[in-house]
Protein backbone atom coordinates (compact mmCIF):
# COMPACT_ATOMS: atom_id res chain seq x y z
CA UNK A 1 0.00 0.00 0.00
CA UNK A 2 1.43 3.37 -1.07
CA UNK A 3 2.11 5.98 1.57
CA UNK A 4 -0.39 8.90 1.33
CA UNK A 5 1.15 12.02 -0.17
CA UNK A 6 0.75 15.70 0.54
CA UNK A 7 -1.08 16.00 -2.78
CA UNK A 8 -3.58 13.32 -1.75
CA UNK A 9 -4.33 15.19 1.49
CA UNK A 10 -4.79 18.43 -0.47
CA UNK A 11 -7.22 16.73 -2.88
CA UNK A 12 -9.23 15.18 -0.02
CA UNK A 13 -9.41 18.51 1.85
CA UNK A 14 -10.10 20.58 -1.25
CA UNK A 15 -7.19 22.96 -0.60
CA UNK A 16 -3.82 23.64 -2.16
CA UNK A 17 -0.69 21.62 -1.48
CA UNK A 18 0.95 24.69 0.09
CA UNK A 19 -1.94 25.05 2.53
CA UNK A 20 -1.53 21.45 3.68
CA UNK A 21 2.22 22.04 4.05
CA UNK A 22 1.61 25.08 6.27
CA UNK A 23 -0.78 23.10 8.47
CA UNK A 24 1.44 20.05 9.00
CA UNK A 25 4.45 22.29 9.68
CA UNK A 26 2.56 24.14 12.40
CA UNK A 27 2.60 27.55 10.72
CA UNK A 28 0.04 30.00 12.17
CA UNK A 29 -1.04 31.53 8.84
CA UNK A 30 -4.01 29.17 8.35
CA UNK A 31 -7.52 29.84 9.67
CA UNK A 32 -8.89 27.40 12.28
CA UNK A 33 -11.66 26.07 10.01
CA UNK A 34 -9.23 25.29 7.17
CA UNK A 35 -6.83 23.70 9.67
CA UNK A 36 -9.64 21.43 10.93
CA UNK A 37 -10.52 20.35 7.38
CA UNK A 38 -6.88 19.54 6.59
CA UNK A 39 -6.32 17.63 9.83
CA UNK A 40 -9.49 15.61 9.21
CA UNK A 41 -8.12 14.62 5.78
CA UNK A 42 -4.76 13.76 7.38
CA UNK A 43 -6.52 11.45 9.86
CA UNK A 44 -8.72 9.82 7.21
CA UNK A 45 -5.80 9.05 4.92
CA UNK A 46 -3.33 8.16 7.65
CA UNK A 47 -0.86 10.69 6.31
CA UNK A 48 2.51 10.85 8.13
CA UNK A 49 4.66 13.93 7.41
CA UNK A 50 8.08 13.27 5.91
CA UNK A 51 10.39 14.33 8.73
CA UNK A 52 13.45 14.84 6.54
CA UNK A 53 11.57 17.05 4.08
CA UNK A 54 9.95 19.02 6.90
CA UNK A 55 13.35 19.60 8.49
CA UNK A 56 14.59 21.07 5.21
CA UNK A 57 11.70 23.54 5.29
CA UNK A 58 11.89 24.45 8.99
CA UNK A 59 15.71 24.24 9.29
CA UNK A 60 15.15 22.18 12.46
CA UNK A 61 16.15 18.64 13.37
CA UNK A 62 13.90 18.38 16.44
CA UNK A 63 16.88 16.79 18.18
CA UNK A 64 18.88 18.15 21.12
CA UNK A 65 22.30 16.98 22.30
CA UNK A 66 22.93 16.17 25.97
CA UNK A 67 26.71 16.35 26.36
CA UNK A 68 28.16 14.76 29.50
CA UNK A 69 31.74 15.92 30.08
CA UNK A 70 32.76 12.93 32.19
CA UNK A 71 34.45 9.62 31.44
CA UNK A 72 31.74 6.98 30.85
CA UNK A 73 32.99 5.06 33.92
CA UNK A 74 31.78 7.97 36.05
CA UNK A 75 28.84 9.20 34.00
CA UNK A 76 27.33 5.69 34.06
CA UNK A 77 28.45 4.77 37.57
CA UNK A 78 26.22 4.49 40.63
CA UNK A 79 26.18 8.28 41.05
CA UNK A 80 22.43 8.96 40.81
CA UNK A 81 22.89 12.59 39.80
CA UNK A 82 23.69 11.66 36.20
CA UNK A 83 20.78 9.23 35.78
CA UNK A 84 18.38 11.73 37.37
CA UNK A 85 19.44 14.54 35.03
CA UNK A 86 19.37 12.35 31.91
CA UNK A 87 15.95 10.90 32.78
CA UNK A 88 14.36 14.26 33.66
CA UNK A 89 15.77 16.01 30.58
CA UNK A 90 14.63 13.16 28.32
CA UNK A 91 11.09 13.26 29.71
CA UNK A 92 10.85 17.03 29.30
CA UNK A 93 12.10 16.80 25.70
CA UNK A 94 9.66 13.97 24.94
CA UNK A 95 6.81 16.13 26.19
CA UNK A 96 7.97 18.87 23.80
CA UNK A 97 8.14 16.42 20.89
CA UNK A 98 11.95 16.49 20.74
CA UNK A 99 14.57 13.77 20.56
CA UNK A 100 17.57 13.63 22.92
CA UNK A 101 20.98 12.56 21.62
CA UNK A 102 23.35 11.53 24.42
CA UNK A 103 26.98 12.43 23.68
CA UNK A 104 29.72 11.44 26.17
CA UNK A 105 32.60 13.91 26.12
CA UNK A 106 35.13 12.74 28.68
CA UNK A 107 38.27 12.89 26.52
CA UNK A 108 39.91 15.18 23.94
CA UNK A 109 38.98 12.70 21.21
CA UNK A 110 35.33 12.70 22.22
CA UNK A 111 35.40 16.51 22.40
CA UNK A 112 36.41 16.59 18.75
CA UNK A 113 33.65 14.13 17.80
CA UNK A 114 31.02 16.16 19.66
CA UNK A 115 32.15 19.42 18.06
CA UNK A 116 32.10 17.84 14.58
CA UNK A 117 28.65 16.31 15.19
CA UNK A 118 27.14 19.60 16.36
CA UNK A 119 28.82 21.57 13.57
CA UNK A 120 27.24 19.14 11.09
CA UNK A 121 23.80 20.48 11.96
CA UNK A 122 22.50 17.25 13.50
CA UNK A 123 20.96 18.98 16.54
CA UNK A 124 19.10 22.23 17.22
CA UNK A 125 20.86 22.91 20.51
CA UNK A 126 23.17 21.53 23.20
CA UNK A 127 22.84 20.91 26.94
CA UNK A 128 26.13 20.60 28.84
CA UNK A 129 26.46 18.53 32.02
CA UNK A 130 29.39 18.24 34.44
CA UNK A 131 31.76 20.78 32.91
CA UNK A 132 35.19 21.49 34.41
CA UNK A 133 37.34 24.58 34.43
CA UNK A 134 39.78 23.52 31.71
CA UNK A 135 37.06 22.10 29.43
CA UNK A 136 37.34 23.84 26.01
CA UNK A 137 34.05 22.41 24.74
CA UNK A 138 31.64 25.18 25.93
CA UNK A 139 33.68 27.83 24.16
CA UNK A 140 34.01 25.74 21.01
CA UNK A 141 30.25 25.10 20.83
CA UNK A 142 29.29 28.73 21.39
CA UNK A 143 31.57 29.72 18.52
CA UNK A 144 29.46 27.46 16.28
CA UNK A 145 26.49 29.77 17.03
CA UNK A 146 24.38 26.85 18.22
CA UNK A 147 22.11 27.45 21.24
CA UNK A 148 23.92 26.08 24.32
CA UNK A 149 22.84 25.86 27.97
CA UNK A 150 24.62 24.36 30.96
CA UNK A 151 23.49 22.21 33.85
CA UNK A 152 25.31 24.10 36.57
CA UNK A 153 27.22 27.36 36.40
CA UNK A 154 30.01 26.85 33.83
CA UNK A 155 33.51 26.64 35.26
CA UNK A 156 35.00 27.92 32.01
CA UNK A 157 34.89 31.70 31.41
CA UNK A 158 32.23 31.56 28.69
CA UNK A 159 28.86 33.29 28.43
CA UNK A 160 26.48 30.31 28.49
CA UNK A 161 23.03 30.44 30.15
CA UNK A 162 22.70 27.90 32.95
CA UNK A 163 20.43 26.35 35.55
CA UNK A 164 21.95 25.60 38.94
CA UNK A 165 21.08 25.00 42.57
CA UNK A 166 22.05 27.44 45.31
CA UNK A 167 25.24 25.63 46.23
CA UNK A 168 26.63 28.37 48.48
CA UNK A 169 23.33 28.71 50.31
CA UNK A 170 22.91 24.96 50.64
CA UNK A 171 26.36 24.57 52.19
CA UNK A 172 25.60 27.41 54.60
CA UNK A 173 22.44 25.60 55.71
CA UNK A 174 24.43 22.41 56.32
CA UNK A 175 27.21 24.03 58.34
CA UNK A 176 24.79 26.31 60.19
CA UNK A 177 22.84 23.24 61.26
CA UNK A 178 25.99 21.65 62.69
CA UNK A 179 26.81 24.84 64.59
CA UNK A 180 23.29 24.93 66.01
CA UNK A 181 23.80 21.37 67.25
CA UNK A 182 26.80 22.57 69.24
CA UNK A 183 29.53 21.12 67.04
CA UNK A 184 32.81 23.01 67.37
CA UNK A 185 35.41 21.36 65.13
CA UNK A 186 33.62 21.06 61.78
CA UNK A 187 35.56 19.66 58.83
CA UNK A 188 34.54 19.43 55.19
CA UNK A 189 35.19 17.01 52.36
CA UNK A 190 35.10 19.33 49.36
CA UNK A 191 34.28 18.28 45.83
CA UNK A 192 36.61 18.75 42.83
CA UNK A 193 37.79 22.35 42.82
CA UNK A 194 37.72 22.60 39.03
CA UNK A 195 33.93 22.22 39.19
CA UNK A 196 31.70 25.09 40.30
CA UNK A 197 29.64 22.84 42.57
CA UNK A 198 32.82 21.94 44.46
CA UNK A 199 33.95 25.57 44.58
CA UNK A 200 30.61 27.00 45.70
CA UNK A 201 29.94 24.43 48.41
CA UNK A 202 33.41 25.04 49.81
CA UNK A 203 32.74 28.79 49.75
CA UNK A 204 29.53 28.30 51.74
CA UNK A 205 31.38 26.18 54.30
CA UNK A 206 34.22 28.68 54.69
CA UNK A 207 31.99 31.74 54.96
CA UNK A 208 29.80 30.16 57.64
CA UNK A 209 32.79 29.10 59.78
CA UNK A 210 34.46 32.48 59.31
CA UNK A 211 31.34 34.23 60.61
CA UNK A 212 31.42 31.98 63.70
CA UNK A 213 35.18 32.47 64.35
CA UNK A 214 36.01 28.82 63.70
CA UNK A 215 38.84 27.53 61.55
CA UNK A 216 38.37 25.54 58.38
CA UNK A 217 39.46 21.89 58.27
CA UNK A 218 39.48 20.75 54.65
CA UNK A 219 40.12 17.63 52.61
CA UNK A 220 39.24 17.26 48.93
CA UNK A 221 37.48 14.35 47.24
CA UNK A 222 36.12 13.66 43.76
CA UNK A 223 32.42 13.01 44.52
CA UNK A 224 32.93 9.23 44.88
CA UNK A 225 32.43 7.00 47.94
CA UNK A 226 36.07 5.92 48.00
CA UNK A 227 37.36 9.49 47.93
CA UNK A 228 35.06 10.30 50.85
CA UNK A 229 36.51 7.45 52.88
CA UNK A 230 40.10 8.45 52.06
CA UNK A 231 39.43 12.10 52.91
CA UNK A 232 37.78 11.15 56.20
CA UNK A 233 40.81 9.14 57.26
CA UNK A 234 43.02 12.11 56.38
CA UNK A 235 40.84 14.47 58.42
CA UNK A 236 40.92 12.19 61.46
CA UNK A 237 44.70 12.00 61.23
CA UNK A 238 44.98 15.78 60.94
CA UNK A 239 42.51 16.55 63.73
CA UNK A 240 41.47 13.60 65.92
CA UNK A 241 39.17 15.87 67.94
CA UNK A 242 36.90 16.93 65.07
CA UNK A 243 33.24 16.39 65.91
CA UNK A 244 31.45 17.04 62.60
CA UNK A 245 32.00 16.79 58.86
CA UNK A 246 30.13 18.30 55.93
CA UNK A 247 30.64 16.36 52.71
CA UNK A 248 29.98 18.11 49.40
CA UNK A 249 27.88 15.21 48.12
CA UNK A 250 26.13 12.19 49.58
CA UNK A 251 28.41 9.56 48.05
CA UNK A 252 31.42 11.09 49.80
CA UNK A 253 29.38 11.37 53.01
CA UNK A 254 28.55 7.65 52.80
CA UNK A 255 32.25 6.85 52.32
CA UNK A 256 33.10 9.09 55.28
CA UNK A 257 30.61 7.25 57.50
CA UNK A 258 32.27 3.95 56.61
CA UNK A 259 35.70 5.35 57.52
CA UNK A 260 34.35 6.69 60.81
CA UNK A 261 32.86 3.32 61.66
CA UNK A 262 36.17 1.59 60.87
CA UNK A 263 37.93 4.10 63.15
CA UNK A 264 35.57 3.32 66.02
CA UNK A 265 33.80 6.69 65.85
CA UNK A 266 30.06 6.75 66.36
CA UNK A 267 27.73 8.78 64.11
CA UNK A 268 26.41 11.16 65.34
CA UNK A 269 27.58 10.69 68.96
CA UNK A 270 31.25 11.26 68.17
CA UNK A 271 31.10 12.84 64.74
CA UNK A 272 28.01 14.31 63.07
CA UNK A 273 27.80 13.93 59.28
CA UNK A 274 25.90 16.00 56.71
CA UNK A 275 25.91 15.34 52.96
CA UNK A 276 24.64 17.10 49.87
CA UNK A 277 22.15 16.14 47.10
CA UNK A 278 19.68 14.11 49.20
CA UNK A 279 19.92 11.02 47.00
CA UNK A 280 17.61 8.09 47.72
CA UNK A 281 20.42 6.16 49.44
CA UNK A 282 20.65 8.90 52.11
CA UNK A 283 17.44 7.60 53.65
CA UNK A 284 18.85 4.08 54.02
CA UNK A 285 22.31 4.63 55.50
CA UNK A 286 22.91 3.67 59.13
CA UNK A 287 22.08 6.10 60.60
CA UNK A 288 20.02 7.91 57.91
CA UNK A 289 22.02 10.77 56.44
CA UNK A 290 21.16 14.44 56.93
CA UNK A 291 21.57 16.07 53.52
CA UNK A 292 20.96 19.22 51.50
CA UNK A 293 18.23 18.51 48.98
CA UNK A 294 19.26 19.71 45.53
CA UNK A 295 16.38 19.57 42.99
CA UNK A 296 18.28 17.82 40.19
CA UNK A 297 15.19 16.66 38.27
CA UNK A 298 13.58 20.10 38.41
CA UNK A 299 16.86 21.73 37.36
CA UNK A 300 17.16 19.38 34.37
CA UNK A 301 13.60 20.11 33.26
CA UNK A 302 14.23 23.85 33.62
CA UNK A 303 17.42 23.47 31.56
CA UNK A 304 15.41 21.91 28.74
CA UNK A 305 12.85 24.71 28.81
CA UNK A 306 15.64 27.30 28.80
CA UNK A 307 17.23 25.68 25.73
CA UNK A 308 13.93 25.33 23.85
CA UNK A 309 13.32 29.03 24.44
CA UNK A 310 16.77 29.86 23.07
CA UNK A 311 16.08 27.78 19.97
CA UNK A 312 12.92 29.82 19.42
CA UNK A 313 14.91 33.02 19.78
CA UNK A 314 13.83 33.94 23.29
CA UNK A 315 16.26 35.69 25.68
CA UNK A 316 17.81 33.51 28.40
CA UNK A 317 18.97 34.37 31.89
CA UNK A 318 20.72 32.11 34.43
CA UNK A 319 18.36 30.39 36.86
CA UNK A 320 19.42 29.43 40.40
CA UNK A 321 16.98 27.15 42.23
CA UNK A 322 16.65 26.99 46.04
CA UNK A 323 17.94 24.12 48.17
CA UNK A 324 16.76 22.89 51.57
CA UNK A 325 18.22 20.89 54.41
CA UNK A 326 16.65 17.51 55.21
CA UNK A 327 17.57 16.60 58.79
CA UNK A 328 17.96 12.93 59.67
CA UNK A 329 19.72 10.96 62.41
CA UNK A 330 23.35 11.37 61.25
CA UNK A 331 23.56 14.89 62.69
Automatic annotation (TrEMBL):
Keywords: DNA-binding, Transcription, Transcription regulation. Residues 5-27 form the HTH cro/C1-type domain. SMART domains: HTH_LACI. InterPro entries: Cro/C1-type_HTH, HTH_LacI, LacI/GalR-like_sensor, Lambda_DNA-bd_dom_sf, Peripla_BP_I. Residues 4-58 form the HTH lacI-type domain. GO terms for molecular function: DNA binding. PANTHER family: HTH-TYPE TRANSCRIPTIONAL REGULATOR GALS, LACI-RELATED TRANSCRIPTIONAL REPRESSOR. This is LacI family DNA-binding transcriptional regulator. It comes from Streptosporangium jomthongense.
Amino acid sequence: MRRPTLEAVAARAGVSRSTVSRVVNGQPTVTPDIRDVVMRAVDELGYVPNGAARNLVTQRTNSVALVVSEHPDRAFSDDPMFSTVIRAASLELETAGKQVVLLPAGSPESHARVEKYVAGGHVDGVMLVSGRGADPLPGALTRLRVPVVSYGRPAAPVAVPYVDGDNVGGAKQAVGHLLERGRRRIATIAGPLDMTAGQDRLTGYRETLRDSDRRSIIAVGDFTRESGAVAMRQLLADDPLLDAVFAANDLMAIGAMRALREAGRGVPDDVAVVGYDDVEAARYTDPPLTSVHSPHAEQAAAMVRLLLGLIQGDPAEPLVMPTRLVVRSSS
